[in-house]
Amino acid sequence: MLFQFFSISPMLSIAVVSLAVSFVITLIYRFTTDQKKMKDLKNDITNLRAEMKAAKDPKKMGDVNRRLMERTMDQFRLSMKPMLITMIPALIILGWMQANLAYQQIAPDVEFTTTAFFEKGATGEIELEATDGVQILNSSKQKVEDKVVWSLKGKEGDYELAYNYNSEHYSREIAITKIWAYKDPVLEKEKSFLGINTGDRYPIKSDSMLREIRIGNKPLHPFGEISIFGWTPGWLAAYIMLSLLFSMALRSLLKVY
Fold it and tell me: H-type helices in 1-124, by residue range?
């Protein structure tokens, strides 16, 4: 079963990752930038903003605004190095979090689904097979449409689902458990970033009419079912909010400008 911080709560797991990432990025930022210059620029920008607010003469306001933009660009240029250093590791961490912190577990003896999504115009049949311990509640072999859905239920344990479509064969591991833990529920076509594989080790063939396979794990909502104008924050929103809070606190504590 995938490592889930010893099965601690989802919110605590996200908080631990957010704190660790924020701490490392803050240290990199501190040791790869000229902190004295960054401090001076920050003070200049604060003073120029106050001067801009107090200025009455349009000509003076234009001059202050020009100097403010120059200082802001200098600050941005100095920040570029740590941004470039941390960009790829940050994307890898986000990918790991998507695979490990984004969903709820499948509970024993509770019905769940798996869905195969197809490209437009796909034809034929697709068959689902499951290892012992998992029961397929509807027809295992179905005619291909835009999507094909199976309902399943199983006992606690680790299992494998096999999808047979024409001459193509794919599989997905699932974990049925009482604790918070799961296997990556999505199988897609090949994905890469800068030549690095960011998707599945054995993806769906690029020319296949089968587009995606998804296990029906429900999305994780760390804050519960709190709704903000109809939007329920997920793991990414929690990570961003916590990262901002931790970054501000760490920058203040370590005197990073």
Answer: 10-32, 35-54, 58-100
